[in-house]
Amino acid sequence: xxxxxxxxxxxxxxxxxxxxxxxxxxxxxxxxxxxxxxxxxxxxxxxxxxxxxxxxxxxxxxxxxxxxxxxxxxxxxxxxxxxxxxxxxxxxxxxxxxxxxxxxxxxxxxxxxxxxxxxxxxxxxxxxxxxxxxxxxxxxxxxxxxxxxxxxxxxxxxxxxxxxxxxxxxxxxxxxxxxxxxxxxxxxxxxxxxxxxxxxxxxxxxxxxxxxxxxxxxxxxxxxxxxxxxxxxxxxxxxxxxxxxxxxxxxxxxxxxxxxxxxxxxxxxxxxxxxxxxxxxxxxxxxxxxxxxxxxxxxxxxxxxxxxxxxxxxxxxxxxxxxxxxxxxxxxxxxxxxxxxxxxxxxxxxxxxxxxxxxxxxxxxxxxxxxxxxxxxxxxxxxxxxxxxxxxxxxxxxxxxxxxxxxxxxxxxxxxxxxxxxxxxxxxxxxxxxxxxxxxxxxxxxxxxxxxxxxxxxxxxxxxxxxxxxxxxxxxxxxxxxxxxxxxxxxxxxxxxxxxxxxxxxxxxxxxxxxxxxxxxxxxxxxxxxxxxxxxxxxxxxxxxxxxxxxxxxxxxxxxxxxxxxxxxxxxxxxxxxxxxxxx
Length: 584
Ligand code: GLC
Ligand code: CA
Hints:
binds alpha-D-glucopyranose, five-stranded antiparallel beta sheet, binds calcium ion, disordered C terminus, globular, 24% helix, disordered N terminus, 15 helices
């Protein structure tokens, strides 16, 4: 077992609560989140305990040992609440209930407690921008008249034009298509329109309404009282809208966009921070914030707002030394003044898996340019994904790992079209491949589907079909192979955990060729990534700790990373020669 992970197996029956939590094993380290490795667990696709083909909490509870062995500090659970699953659970019908497909509230409480016994914290996903159209508030709003208090919690609006046939404005949904849907009056005549920045099943809440604020603060307390260590805030930059609902300007200046990154939003998070800080141990707020302007982004990380936010800039960059170095530099420079640690994210449940992305001719990521059927060199992509893992894990700050990334799973691009469920695919008319390809149930063991995802004798097939080729990528197969992606991740996280120079702190670039990134963390750790087409000689006088490709001959292959320890440590004076091209 690695440091900080308690020996032992999961106990059953203990219920997490404020009492148990305040005595928790974590109390000593209130800065844990500055260096944490956080595993994103997409419940539906992680492990199926009851054999219906859908991942669930019972499945997670049997796999906590796996996560402890991997070496993660926390699990972020994507939404597990009651939901019609019109958007994979990001359409919440009741924030205080677990969807019966996943389990029960009691089971969630037990899971939080059991994870804690493995030394793993729990983070839940809070979805404040919108609710499910099945949520009691929206159902009440539909049943009430225009202008009623029930409707005031949402964005109901009369249409424009003759008979109100035109949408109140021209806003477009993030899932393509219009951001407005028209309602029907009880007598069957067309009624008001309501706003949804995502699918029509996800009506936006009106964050100027006191009920909306009070309800979400109560929901936060509900989960923090159950012992969760923090919350991931979905679509955190979208909550506030300009009540005049103007059209979106061609080039909105800072704070001028009518539905994104509005200045009033900071007050919401300042209140949440006071709430989180009212707990005696550290409870963290993590924002999902997609913003091109990095200074607007880090505004959310001022000391009295969110603790951290996902650094999507890094994830969006192509496999290119100059571009990634630029992202690293601008990220660290923007975080420094607010004192927040950076986060490093290679993937999540919304984006193309890195193995596939890094094997594509254009290896950058943007929702807007995503098209179905883009070819990928998976072998090349996997090599680069291994190198990217070592690069990201060596950078200052905290690290996110999306389930299956540690197995090197690729995006499944050939799912049968009639099984796709993602509204992003459905609403784009099929031009956008959607996000189902990165949400395929994990392969655990065996040589054929369900690959141990569901127990023997399961009645349901996995909710998305797993490719046969994943027989080579099961946890079982990779555990046996010291060169597998899983073995790389385990060793990487073990070293990261035991090395005080890794995680939060500073980085020092070392001299290198343009298509090589080399930096030191402290005096006794160096990370080198070779983006060039030729092997480069590793610097002498260093111990090779770990490499993403064989480097035993002293050369770092193309598209590979190595972690090194200067042997003269601790007297190493920082003047170590940078790597030079091989054969010189
Ligand atoms: C976030 C989630 C995504 C979801 C959207 C709407 O971007 O990560 O999965 O579809 O919000 O809730
Ligand atoms: Ca199940």
